[in-house]
């Protein structure tokens, strides 16, 4: 453990490529986007960072329908709501509001992410939780203390996929 972070890999951040940055080449996904964040988070990323593609994924049908209705008022070619099936997510940057995910959902998502080519993962779960669920390729590089609009405190972890880290 270094500075309170669990360390699985030693990082050498000199000369890292721009693949870690959110740029026009990036593809961003919000997993568990709910019904409001799709417009707020995904649209913000699409417009501010100018990413190539921004997608919200929601598994609860009623929330997905509300998000689709909300998005009708805001047209943007880079924003999509999708039903996604398959064994991996093809996105460079993954945001997961996973505070309410069950152990079963966490294990399923860990299996999908383990096979995915993402570069950056933003999550509210600790590294040890991800590692226990089988997502062994991630290493925390930062943590942020945040407050919700209801003043609830939470910690957000920033991870990188070690498959893409300079060696």
UniProtKB/TrEMBL annotation:
Q: Name one GO molecular function term.
A: histone H3K79 methyltransferase activity
**SUPFAM superfamilies according to UniProt:** S-adenosyl-L-methionine-dependent methyltransferases (SSF53335)
Q: Which organism was this protein described from?
A: Emiliania huxleyi (strain CCMP1516)
Q: Which Gene3D superfamilies match?
A: Vaccinia Virus protein VP39
Where would I find the DOT1 domain in this sequence?
21-72
The uppermost taxa in this organism's lineage are: Eukaryota, Haptista, Haptophyta, Prymnesiophyceae, Isochrysidales
Give the top-rank taxon of the lineage listed in the UniProt record for this protein.
Eukaryota
This protein is called: DOT1 domain-containing protein
InterPro entries from the UniProt entry: DOT1_dom (IPR025789), SAM-dependent_MTases_sf (IPR029063)
């Amino acid at each position: 453990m270094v500075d309170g972070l669990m360390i699985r890999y030693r990082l050498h951040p000199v000369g890292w490529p721009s693949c870690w940055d959110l740029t026009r080449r990036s593809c961003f996904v919000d997993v568990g986007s709910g019904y409001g964040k799709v417009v707020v988070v995904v649209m913000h990323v699409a417009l501010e960072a100018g990413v190539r593609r921004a997608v919200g994924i929601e598994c609860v049908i009623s929330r997905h329908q509300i998000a689709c209705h909300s998005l009708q008022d805001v047209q943007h070619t880079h924003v999509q709501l999708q039903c996604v099936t398959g064994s991996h997510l093809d996105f460079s940057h993954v945001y997961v509001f996973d505070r309410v995910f069950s152990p079963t959902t966490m294990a399923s998502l860990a299996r999908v992410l383990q096979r995915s080519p993402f570069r950056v993962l933003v999550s509210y779960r600790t590294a040890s939780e991800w590692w226990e669920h089988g997502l062994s390729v991630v290493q925390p590089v930062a943590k942020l203390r945040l407050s919700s609009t209801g003043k609830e405190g939470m910690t957000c972890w920033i991870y990188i996929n070690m498959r893409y880290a300079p060696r």
